[in-house]
Amino acid sequence: MSGSFIxxxxxxxxxxxxxLIGLFQRYKRCPSDRILVVxxxxxxxxxxxxxxxxxxHGGAAFIxxxxxxxxFLDLTPISIEVMLTNALSRQNIRVDVPSRFTVGISTxxxxxxxxxxxxxxxxxxxxxxxxKDIIFGQLRxxxxxxxxxxxxxxxxKFLANVANNVExxxxxxxxxxxxxxxxxxxxxxxxxxALGKEAAAKAINDARKSVAEKDRDGSIGEANAVQEQRVKxxxxxxxxxxxxxxxxxxxxxxxxxxxEREAEAQRQAIAAExxxxxxxxxxxxxxxxxxxxxxxxxxxxxxxADIVVPARIDKEKVExxxxxxxxxxxxxxxxxxxxxxxxxxxxxxxxxxxxxxxxEGFKQIVEAAGKNSKDAVxxxxxxxxxxxxRLQTEAIKNIKIDKVTVWDSGNGEGERTSTANFISGxxxxxxxxxxxxxxxxxxxxxxxxxxxxxxxxxxxxxVKEKKPASKPKQAPPxxxx
Length: 481
Known about the structure:
Elements: H1 2-25, E1 27-29, E2 34-40, E3 53-56, E4 60-62, E5 68-74, E6 78-88, E7 94-105, H2 111-118, H3 124-144, H4 148-153, H5 155-170, E8 175-182, E9 186-187, H6 191-368, H7 373-383, H8 385-397, H9 418-428, H10 433-439, H11 453-465
Helix pairs in contact: 3-5, 6-7, 7-11
């Protein structure tokens, strides 16, 4: 029993060991010069569609048995020699463009997938032939779009156009253009050779022109050198003569300066003696002036003490008295202003009381007239009627008649004599009540115009005797049962 158990354990261990070895063998590492292509069930892409292959460069991946498998793509560069002949340019000139291209499988994302889909399983010669066919077609296309001068003179532009066109087509099958090298360009008609001869002739002519220009420049330089030599010799001679003259002038100036300085020294000595004498006198005069100034200042101080100080004291006393009077005047003015203010306030208060009483009286008159505006005006005018009549009589009261001579023949109108008519007419000259209102700037109510004072008084009396109508009694409010 124990032996069988050991055998079972051994079998299980061996089985697990074999499985582990198999799993380890399915873990594949990708070298740097290859691309690991895992195909089978490798998942889905961003568009939720199944991927055809999974490309890994520079890493490792576990290859699931049964559902996945793998292969490697070689990244070794492929050199392709392209001998393009009789290619037609844009000028319809056929040219030969021998060139060499270096290509290889690209390691860019997306392009690696193209390589896995189109190159997986192909050997290097097959990839070489496929790339060569693509390059042949694109090279012919580029030559057909350019002139011979551009192809021959501007090689950079030609190579850039070739690289752009060729690489765009190589990416479709997963390849990358590494290098382009055009060895030589020839044409059957000799156009490029003629261009070369023209360039050579131009170069030779330019060289000959340059030599002639250099010879001319040499002759001109030699003449300029001779001229410069003669000018410099003459200039040196003139400089020498000028130097001699300057030396003589310097000697003469030195003698003159010496004599001038001797005279100046003698003059300064005499002047110094005179200056010292004048300075001594000046100091003596200054000492006397200082003494006189000191005496004057002392006298001035004494006079200031005797005159200015008392005057200043009197001035200050006057200012103090003036300030006191001004303060007294301000106080008096303030008192008078306060008194005027109190007086005006009292007058205003009295006027206010009078107007208040008048307003209360007018209110009582309106109440007595039964709140009828016409009756209220009638009562006010009737109350002032005696005063108005007095004013009318005053109009003729003060008329002075020095002498009245009456010649009454008794021929008056009706039963009245002429004297009576004269007195009656004199009284009629008194202005009526309506004219008095007009002259005062007031307007008599329409219902009082043409009324005599007696009639107005009678109307006012009737208003006073009139009793106000009693208000109707209100029925008691009904109560709801």
